[in-house]
Amino acid sequence: MAKKMSVEEILAAAKAGGAKKPAEPAAPAPAAAAPDVEPVAAEAAPAAPAPKAAVKAGSMSAADILAMAKAGKKPAAPAAPAPVAAAAPVAEKPKPAPPKTDAAVAAAVPKDTASVLAAARKAAKPGPVSKAEAEAKGIAPVVPAGKKKLEAPPMPAKPAFARPAAAADPDRRTFMAAAAGALFGSSLAIGFTSLAVTHLMWVLGLARYMFPNILIEPPTRFKVGPPTNFGPGQVETKFIPEFGVWIVRYEFDGKPMIFALKAVCTHLGCTPNWLEAEQKFKCPCHGSGFYKDGINFEGPAPRPLERYAISLADDGQLEVDKSRTFNQEQGQWKDAASFVSV
């Protein structure tokens, strides 16, 4: 940017011979008057001291100044430009809004969800359509001029080895075998079957728990037949499994009688066995032995066997009553209810 020279410097350069032409100062651009905007007054800067001969800037050219210098006249110094007040920012005028169309007015109106969904569910589908939709709507494909529609050649027939074999109709046996194999053949089926059986056992156990424990015992009174069915010295053992009693025909204290012995050892409650060859009752637990009349003679048994009550019923049969027992050590074997005389 060229250095700005004052008028006095220009005159001095002209008197020196005009060897150098001073650069012409650029004229200040006139301030454009803003329409409809009032300038805002600002605080003025202090003005520089004006020279003696004031010449208006821009009123004389460099040639005029040189001509005046040759003639011996001094041009008046240019007056200092008046400070320009800082203009306030000019507010731009709002641009006029474009006229609203019907589409813009419709878009500006708020829509509810039902109207938006109704607009989205239009029957006409915008954009390209598939071949199936085009065939359904009867739209023929556009074929460019000079080109024929390409047609795919027919598929060749499959060879015999590639064709699936015809499934034979399974009979009942084949179907049952396949069902059994599917049910019990796989590990998953075995697991589910085991789970079902386990649940069934739990249900049965719960049902059994809901019922009370009832011990069904044989009747305490039962008949064993007429006295003639028992011979002298006979020990009948057929009533042991059901009633646990021996029917014995033997003599006691010199009197022939029929009595019923309780088949329970007086030591620890085991069931003795009748040994026909040895003519004695023998306990298999600890070796206690009893004679045919029930008297203990060996082993740890502390007392003789007990008797049940026995009597002759109205129909002539012997009837045993297990609700009553008789002990020999207490002298109860002498009771007439503990035997039947023969």
TrEMBL record:
The region called Disordered is annotated at 14-53
Q: Which cofactor does it need?
A: [2Fe-2S] cluster
Q: What positions does the domain Rieske occupy? A: 222-319
| GO MF entries | 2 iron, 2 sulfur cluster binding; metal ion binding
Which cellular component, as a GO term, is one annotated location? membrane
Q: Which domain of life is it from?
A: Bacteria
Keywords associated with the record: 2Fe-2S, Disulfide bond, Iron, Iron-sulfur, Membrane, Metal-binding, Transmembrane, Transmembrane helix
Which residues span the membrane?
A: 182-211
**Pfam annotation, one family:** Rieske
Q: Does the keyword Glycoprotein feature in the UniProt annotation? A: no
| UniProt xrefs under PANTHER family | CYTOCHROME B-C1 COMPLEX SUBUNIT RIESKE, MITOCHONDRIAL
Q: What is this protein called?
A: Cytochrome b6-f complex iron-sulfur subunit
